């Protein structure tokens, strides 16, 4: 059995309590205490991965270096820990069942009746231990998606129960996240939902070791004692997680609660060092006290759901802090944008980011937005489909090819400036078949890309099927459009630029996926800088201190 310690994070009472942020914050603190930590997420739905999920369902699909299409919580793990995650860090019930059924078809079960217990639970346990077995980590935190009490969570809870028994209680602990609601009428915090949730977990044979209680108000000693008594945990194991102004405040709040020390003591581990959160604190200090403010438009078709562009939103937070600038991201629905209202919708902005996406809904709105920002020279960053739309816009409005399009939107277009990549042509299945994960890209010497990245070769993550058709490039170049980054091996165009503009860049890859608190992304830093310099009718405001 591996020496790696395992921490499971479950959720009770209600969904959306922020298990991912709690797990990420704990990971950050344990890393700061000197341990090698990783976080994985187990999701109880039947999709094999979130790649086929509409962003309206579960928010954005986060892509790892090795090309896994994963839950957006993995983005939080990377942003907090600065440790890349992999295919192994996100497992769904669909993947578990796929493995079990494939084994059954191969005859691996030798005539047994294949059942949830033990076959599915064994496969869950095998996967829960995989990262620990690599020997790379001292501690593996496993977040269980869903809420205790859900039917689909039962096999996971049973797997945790068995693991706790097999590994021993000092090698495997359970942290349960619950809600302590505040009843305004009674002016009281209520512990009953937490008691019930712990009871529900105990009914499945799992006694939580530590309770993290989400609350709007501070928990008094009396309340902590009451929770400890009725939920059968030590008083030091009742940890409050008060609502915070920023998710990045949470690790510091939990540090003040000695959460990490409570966890280490349960695992019989001694802290290796004092946590050094100086850079983190400096980041928060700047985040909370900005000196400047810019408004950047985020043009996309999923803007109703904040989580659909989570990594982009966070990348703006990180980059803004570099400039002591509050970036107000204004969501603009691409479906309702057209030539007639584009000025009204974008005219007041200091910068515009056109978002990634799939399918034709909202594409014409994105193209209208890009025409406007190109003509007005508003700083522009197009990501993936956003870059492809910039190519289409240029072809139509500068080169005069009025029918130019991506063959994703119009397979019969006269000018297929964006076409299907060669190795995508024979693919029919949708799941995990795109160009995914990290590829290296060579930047053009002397280009703005080289200036921004301060290097000649970069590595960025991808998720797409279509590409710029290089055959059209000479016409584009003749009109002042440049390809400033190309895939190091395939030569695919990865970055485009209008050098006549201060900042007009399109990227086929997803820079937002690599931005972290301590390593903000250079492209976002540069976009925010350009937006701060952009003189529009609504010039960059200076934020009044304490205003
Ligand atoms: N739909 C486009 C493609 O598949 C863009 C994808 C994206 O924006 N992630 O190439």
Provide the fold topology:
Layout: E1 5-11, H1 19-32, E2 37-43, H2 55-58, E3 62-63, E4 69-70, H3 73-81, E5 90-92, H4 93-106, H5 116-133, E6 139-144, H6 154-167, E7 172-180, E8 182-183, E9 188-189, H7 192-203, E10 210-215, H8 221-231, E11 238-242, H9 250-256, H10 259-266, H11 278-288, E12 292-300, H12 310-322, E13 325-333, H13 342-346, E14 351-354, H14 363-376, E15 380-383, H15 385-397, E16 405-406, E17 416-420, E18 435-443, H16 448-453, E19 457-464, E20 466-468, H17 473-478, E21 482-487, E22 493-497, E23 504-507, H18 522-533, E24 541-542
Parallel strand pairs: 1-6, 1-7, 2-5, 2-6, 7-10, 10-11, 12-13, 12-14, 14-15, 15-23, 16-17
Antiparallel strand pairs: 3-4, 8-9, 12-24, 17-20, 18-19, 18-21, 21-22, 22-23
Helix pairs in contact: 1-3, 1-9, 4-5, 5-6, 11-12, 12-18, 14-15
The protein binds glutamine.
Architecture overview:
- The chain has 18 helices and 24 strands.
- The strands form five sheets. Strands 12, 13, 14, 15, 18, 19, 21, 22, 23 and 24 form a ten-stranded mixed beta sheet that branches.
- Strand 8 and strand 9 form a beta hairpin.
- Helix 1 packs across helix 9 and helix 14 crosses helix 15.
- With about 550 residues, the chain is of the alpha/beta class.
- The longest helix has 18 residues.
- The protein binds glutamine.
């Amino acid at each position: 059995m591996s020496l790696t310690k395992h921490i499971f994070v479950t959720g009770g009472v209600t969904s959306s309590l922020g298990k991912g942020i709690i797990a990420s914050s704990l990971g950050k603190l344990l890393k700061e205490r000197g341990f090698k930590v990783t976080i994985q997420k187990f999701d109880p739905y039947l999709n094999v991965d979130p790649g086929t999920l509409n962003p309206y369902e579960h928010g954005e699909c986060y892509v790892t270096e090795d090309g896994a299409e994963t839950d957006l919580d993995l983005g939080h793990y990377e942003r907090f820990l600065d440790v890349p995650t992999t295919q192994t860090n996100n497992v769904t019930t669909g993947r578990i069942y796929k493995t079990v059924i494939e084994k059954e078809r191969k005859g691996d079960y030798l005539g047994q009746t294949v059942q949830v217990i033990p076959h599915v639970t064994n496969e869950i346990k095998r996967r829960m231990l995989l990262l620990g077995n690599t020997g790379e980590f001292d501690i593996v935190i496993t977040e269980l998606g869903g809420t205790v009490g859900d039917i689909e969570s039962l096999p996971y809870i049973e797997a945790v129960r068995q693991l706790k028994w097999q590994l021993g209680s000092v090698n495997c602990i359970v942290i349960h996240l619950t809600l302590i609601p505040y009843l305004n009428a009674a002016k009281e915090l209520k512990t009953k939902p937490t008691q019930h949730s712990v009871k529900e977990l105990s009914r499945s044979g799992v006694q939580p070791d530590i309770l993290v209680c989400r609350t709007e108000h501070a928990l008094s000693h009396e309340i902590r004692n009451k929770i400890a008594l009725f939920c059968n945990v030590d008083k030091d194991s009742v940890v409050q997680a008060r609502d915070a102004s920023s998710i990045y405040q949470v690790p510091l709040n939990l540090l003040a609660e000695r959460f990490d020390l409570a966890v280490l003591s349960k695992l019989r581990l001694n802290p290796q060092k004092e946590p050094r959160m100086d850079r983190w604190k400096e980041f928060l200090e700047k985040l909370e006290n900005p000196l400047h403010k810019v408004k950047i438009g985020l043009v996309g078709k999923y803007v109703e759901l904040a989580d659909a562009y989570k990594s982009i939103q966070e990348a703006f937070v990180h980059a803004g802090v570099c400039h002591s600038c509050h970036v107000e991201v204004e969501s603009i629905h691409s479906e309702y944008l057209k030539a007639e209202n584009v000025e009204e919708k974008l005219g007041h902005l200091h910068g515009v980011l056109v978002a990634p996406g799939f399918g034709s809904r909202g594409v014409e709105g994105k193209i209208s937005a890009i025409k406007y920002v190109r003509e007005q020279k508003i700083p522009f960053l197009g990501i993936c489909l956003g870059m492809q739309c910039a190519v289409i816009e240029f072809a139509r409005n500068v080169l005069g090819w009025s029918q130019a399009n991506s063959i994703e939107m119009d397979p019969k277009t006269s000018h297929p400036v964006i076409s299907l990549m060669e190795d995508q042509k024979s693919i029919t299945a949708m799941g995990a078949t795109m160009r995914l994960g990290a590829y290296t890209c060579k930047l053009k010497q002397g280009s703005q890309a080289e200036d921004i990245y301060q290097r000649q070769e970069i590595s960025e993550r991808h998720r797409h099927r279509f590409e710029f058709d290089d055959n059209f490039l000479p016409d584009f170049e003749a009109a002042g459009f440049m390809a400033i980054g190309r895939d190091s091996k395939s030569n695919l165009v990865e970055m485009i630029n209008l050098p006549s503009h201060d900042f007009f860049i399109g990227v086929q890859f997803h820079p937002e996926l690599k931005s972290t608190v301590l390593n903000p992304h250079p492209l976002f830093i540069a976009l925010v800088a350009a937006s701060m310099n952009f003189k529009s009718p609504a010039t960059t405001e200076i934020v009044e201190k304490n205003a």
